[in-house]
């Protein structure tokens, strides 16, 4: 029967889509569950490996009698790690470095590199400077149950094909002089960590270097960048990135002398300076009250990440009664704080500085002052802020800016 010319022809029935949509939903859900399951399994395997390594971990940090003699960056000893990130392999290392006077010291850390073939010439090395964890030997990040946990942005960096090396800094992990906020020693440790990574054949490390650090580690990588041309001229520092760097120590101290952060950081820093600069007249009793001097051994035995409540319990009674003289205006402390502040000399590598606007430890105004100083030295500086980031979160929340920066500078 023909349709009437004035009527619309009958349309074929609509295909049934519900079954197809349901199949796609089930498939997508299955894929997500498989991915989650794989991540859980990989994490569980990593944790199991980490726990297996705990058995005799302390013996690794005992220095052999021939630990000190040798070229900076040479390996004292290394061991392959079992609990490693997904698609990666890693090593715990003990390597040689030098302190601010050029004297030999030893440092420890970890190296982690992605699986798969390296590019021609080897992998770019990211030398990571960690934020404050404490100053005692036991506070070394490589000693943590998960030694990679504190390497902020590690997954992003591995996925870009980089080898990552993370120093503990001298005096942490193994025997050595205190290096907390001692800029030159930390900078040497960061650069010599790259040399140590190059000495691990499986790390496939090239001489191309990215320096990346947070807070104390920001100070460390800024010093490493300033020192690199003279101290490690064979390394090609391609880019430097610092999140909320402790760039101006005097400004940091002025802000926090009357709060618990100042007592904690000050205890770590003033004890380190008193040890390292004793020959220059750095005497604790010249700037700290008797009550503050008395708590130094207790404060410096505790790690920031694992003993926060205990640190506060000890520090709280001396808040407001910590100093007898302002260290930012009292010599030799004022000069020592200035010497260990970044920005005294320029470096050629492009620099990214990240700052959280909700950071109450390293204040945005202090970071802005450092950026202005770096730009006055005609350095190539990119400054990025994150409105919701605190001191603790800026390195993670700034990762998109870090990736964009590395892409832009061609690393």
UniProtKB/TrEMBL annotation:
Which Pfam family would be a valid example here? LIP
Q: Where is this region: Disordered?
A: 1-20
Q: Kindly list the residue ranges recorded as spanning the membrane.
A: 26-48
State the Gene Ontology BP annotations: lipid catabolic process
- Name the UniProt key words of this record, in alphabetical order: Hydrolase, Membrane, Transmembrane, Transmembrane helix
Q: Where is the composition biased (Basic and acidic residues)?
A: 1-16
Q: Name one GO molecular function term.
A: triacylglycerol lipase activity
Write the protein's name: Alpha/beta hydrolase
The organism of origin for this protein: Miniimonas arenae
């Amino acid at each position: 029967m023909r349709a009437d010319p004035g009527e619309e022809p009958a349309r074929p029935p609509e295909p049934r889509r519900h079954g197809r949509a349901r199949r796609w939903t089930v498939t997508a859900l299955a894929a997500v569950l498989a991915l989650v399951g794989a991540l859980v399994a990989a994490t569980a395997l990593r944790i199991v490996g980490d726990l297996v390594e705990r058995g005799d971990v302390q013996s690794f940090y005992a220095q052999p009698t021939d630990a000190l003699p040798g070229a900076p960056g040479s390996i004292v000893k290394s061991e392959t790690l079992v609990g490693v990130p997904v698609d990666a392999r890693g090593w715990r290392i003990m390597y040689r470095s030098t302190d601010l006077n050029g004297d030999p010291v030893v440092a420890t850390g970890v190296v982690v590199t992605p699986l798969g073939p390296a590019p021609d010439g080897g992998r770019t090395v990211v030398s990571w400077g960690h934020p404050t964890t404490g100053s005692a030997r036991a506070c070394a990040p490589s000693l943590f149950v998960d030694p990679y946990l504190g390497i902020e942005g590690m997954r992003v960096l591995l996925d870009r094909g980089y080898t990552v090396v993370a120093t503990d800094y001298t005096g942490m992990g193994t025997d050595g002089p205190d290096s907390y906020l001692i800029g030159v020693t930390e900078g040497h440790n960061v650069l010599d960590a790259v040399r140590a990574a190059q000495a691990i054949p499986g790390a496939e490390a090239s001489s191309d270097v990215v320096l990346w650090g947070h807070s104390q580690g920001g100070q460390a990588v800024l010093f490493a960048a300033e020192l690199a041309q003279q101290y490690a001229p064979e390394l090609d520092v391609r880019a430097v990135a610092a999140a909320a760097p402790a760039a101006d120590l005097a400004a940091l101290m002025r802000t926090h002398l009357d709060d618990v952060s100042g007592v904690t950081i000050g205890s770590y820093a003033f004890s380190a300076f008193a040890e390292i600069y004793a020959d220059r007249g750095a005497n604790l009793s010249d700037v700290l009250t008797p009550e503050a001097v008395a708590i130094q051994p207790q404060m410096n035995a505790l790690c920031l990440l694992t003993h926060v409540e205990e640190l506060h319990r000890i520090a709280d009674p001396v808040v407001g009664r910590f100093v007898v003289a302002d260290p930012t205006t009292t010599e030799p402390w004022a000069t020592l704080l200035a010497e260990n502040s970044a920005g005294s000399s320029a470096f050629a590598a492009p620099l990214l500085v990240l700052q959280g606007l909700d950071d109450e430890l390293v204040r945005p105004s202090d970071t802005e002052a450092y950026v202005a100083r770096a730009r006055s030295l005609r350095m190539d500086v990119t400054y990025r802020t994150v409105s919701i980031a605190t001191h603790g979160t800026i390195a993670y929340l700034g990762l998109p800016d870090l990736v964009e920066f590395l892409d832009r500078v061609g690393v």
